[in-house]
Specification:
Length: about 475
């Protein structure tokens, strides 16, 4: 036995919603079909009465002579479809019920055409043409599937064959011929049902997908606003100034900057780049934010190397088994000294700008987070001079992996040259916006990865401390 191909939950959702919509559609069209049939039989009754009025002889005698053969079938038809219309309109019918009810109404039409009329008719009823008309008219009004229309066709053919055996005298060859020709009369109705259902399903699927896409876009916009609440506020006052620019490749991304000022008034910064893009990476960032809050809440005096080692353990325990990893760089700056502490776990090297001097790269000194677990994982804390007027720029690989029109990457060296051109900018002036514009100017087309540029500059704190000491001495 062959297994059926698995369907996704979204395909099932489309199928259920489509059938629900079609059930409502069938209900509306069934009511229209009943109205049409009421009008048809009423018109037939009026026409037959008019004929009786102008027929030679007394109207009463003509009426009594033709009541059963000419007037009874259309009057019964009006009663049947008027009752059917009221029933279908006043009762809530689900999809299955309304389809079954449409079957019953068409079957009643078949009984009218193949049993009641021949019972009182003076001449044989054309069975082949009547099957064609009843089935095609029903298919034009009621949006069946091909399978549903075929079931109706079989019922009508059965009634026609019963009528043929009861009211028509014929040979065996005639009977066999009708057995084969009657189902062929349903071919126009079957083709119409196939065409209409295919068009309905295609349009409904497209509308449903577009609707869900719009809903998803709105939800992503809301998720992005919540996600960006995790990012810190920029620091524009005081001895340390922190600014950043973030450009996710999609509405949500996996680049993140975390800032924590400890009780010793030291500024701790962690920049991460989670593998992947979009929702998965953003959800990972959300978890990392909570873990960093927990780490600094438990121990406010963690050095950068200790922070990355703790994050690596967290990734090994909860993320790596799902194939999620990250690169990260952690920095801690103390206003009481001219140094910064740092550690780099597989991240592109941050650059320290010291006036007009060449940029200093803080290269990786550990593997990325989640690859090696304790006790194999090592990440030591390094020290770099960071005096008044200096600036450190941290970034993610979306910056250096930007491609130009010749498909050449900007690279670490290219970004270093761009950064070196900003060495003359005063530390109080932000460069992150200019750096992002330079990357966008170099890049051809939209971003291929999330882009995050973080700058931290230092100015005036040591001079202000010395002024305070002199004033206290005086």
């Amino acid at each position: 036995m062959k297994n059926r191909p698995a369907t996704s939950p979204f395909d099932e959702e489309i199928s259920v919603a489509s059938e629900q919509k079609r059930g409502e559609w069938i209900h509306r069209r069934l009511l229209i079909y009943c109205k049409f049939s009421i009008f048809q039989f009423t018109l037939e009754t009026v026409i037959r009465l008019t004929i009786l009025v102008f027929r030679h002889g007394s109207f009463v005698q003509n009426f009594l002579a033709s009541a059963t053969s000419d007037l009874l079938p259309p009057v019964v038809g009006v009663i049947i479809f008027l009752s059917g219309y009221k029933y279908a309109k006043n009762r809530p019918l689900d999809r299955v019920a309304v389809i079954r009810y449409s079957f019953r109404m068409i079957f009643l039409v078949g009984i009218m055409g193949f049993v009641i009329r021949p019972l009182f008719a003076d001449a044989p009823v054309p069975l082949v043409g009547r099957v064609l008309v009843i089935h095609l008219v029903g298919a034009l009004f009621i949006p069946w599937t091909v399978r549903e229309a075929f079931k109706i066709l079989l019922g009508l053919c059965g009634l026609a064959l019963i009528s043929d055996f009861l009211f028509v005298e014929g040979t065996l060859g005639h009977r066999v011929f009708e057995v084969f020709i009657l189902p062929a009369m349903g071919l126009p109705g079957l083709l119409w049902c196939w065409f209409r259902y295919s068009r309905f399903h295609s349009r409904f699927t497209l509308d449903h997908v577009l609707g869900r896409y719009g809903q998803l876009q709105r939800e992503l916009e809301q998720a992005r606003s919540v996600h960006e609440m995790l990012f810190p506020n920029e620091i524009t006052e005081g001895p340390f100034q922190l600014r950043y620019r973030y450009e996710p490749m999609q509405q949500l991304g996996g680049d993140y900057v975390y800032v924590h000022r400890d009780q010793g008034d030291r500024l701790n910064i962690v920049v991460l780049d989670v593998t992947g893009h979009g929702i998965t990476a953003a959800l990972t960032v959300n978890r990392i934010h909570g873990e960093l809050d927990r780490l600094f809440g438990e121990n406010d005096d963690r050095r950068p190397g200790d922070v990355l080692k703790a994050l690596n353990r967290y990734f090994c325990v909860s993320m790596a088994r799902h194939g999620v990893y990250a690169t990260a760089v952690a920095v801690r700056i103390d206003r009481q000294g001219d140094q910064l502490e740092w550690a780099n776990a597989g991240h592109p090297p941050p650059f320290v700008l010291c006036g007009e001097s060449p940029c200093v790269a803080l290269d990786s000194n550990a593997v990325m987070l989640g690859v090696l677990d304790d006790p194999l994982y090592e990440c030591s804390t390094q020290v770099q001079t960071f005096a008044d007027g200096d600036r450190i720029v941290l970034y993610t690989d979306g910056v250096i992996e930007a491609h130009d029109s010749r498909n050449e990457m900007l690279g670490i060296d290219g970004f270093q040259r761009v950064l070196q051109g900003k060495a003359s900018v005063a530390s109080r002036e932000a460069v992150s916006e200019d750096l992002l514009r330079e990357v966008q100017r170099f890049r051809k087309g939209p971003a291929e990865d999330d882009v995050l540029i973080v700058e931290l500059s230092r100015h005036g704190d040591r001079a202000e401390d010395r002024k305070g000491e002199i004033h206290a001495t005086e």
